[in-house]
Amino acid sequence: MATKKLKDWFDKDLAVLLSEKIKVHDRSFDSRRFIKEVAEGTKNLELKDRVALIADQLQANLPSDFKQAINICRRILGPELKKETGMFTEGYWLMPVAKYVEKYGINHFSESMDAIKMITKRHTGEYCIRPFVIKYPDKTLAVMEKWSHNANVHVRRLSSEGLRPRLPWASELEQFVENPTPVLEILENLKDDDSKFVQKSVANNLNDILKDNYEIGIDVIKRWSKGAKQNRKWIIKHALRNPVKTKDPQALKIIEKLE
Asked: Could you tell me the pTM of the whole model?
């Protein structure tokens, strides 16, 4: 994918790829119409709008019943990622499927949660889960708390990344900008995770929290720093990178004690 911009992978060729996969499980899928609409519609669009247009065309051509449609989508997902990397290389083509769940699955909580869990093992669910966090905060947090104990590294990572108050490329989760306390239980479950992929997400989540709720974030980090082993030390140092740059006294003191 290094030879062209990411947005340029979301065009007619991707429509052909998706339609071929879908057609195996849904003979009524109008491949010709789907490919035509995507090819013509994406020409002058940037990445986000291209992905949204393809998701809209999935909605227009898959069965109108979401449960039936998402069952077809689940069948085309393919093998899980074997490594921590690959979500935007091997799994890039699933971005419109994730957007489809985000836009059209909002009234189907259970089916959408199952789909997001499957998608994130191959691509990522960090963007498509955010509308569910907003509409169903308690139910979604309960699911993500369970995910924080999951054996799959991508699922564990999503339980943190999907709850970041200020996730790049995504709208803010205003409820957690105002009060991040509900997120802390999940981060607590991940503070000693062996995966650097998960560690980075936890650190970035804490970094987000520090921007808006410094005292809450720094209190968590102070507590975590007591008896911290290598994995947790890395999370703390990465979470404090911005306060350290600004010579924040508390951050510098924590880092000094970790050395």
From this structure: 0.95
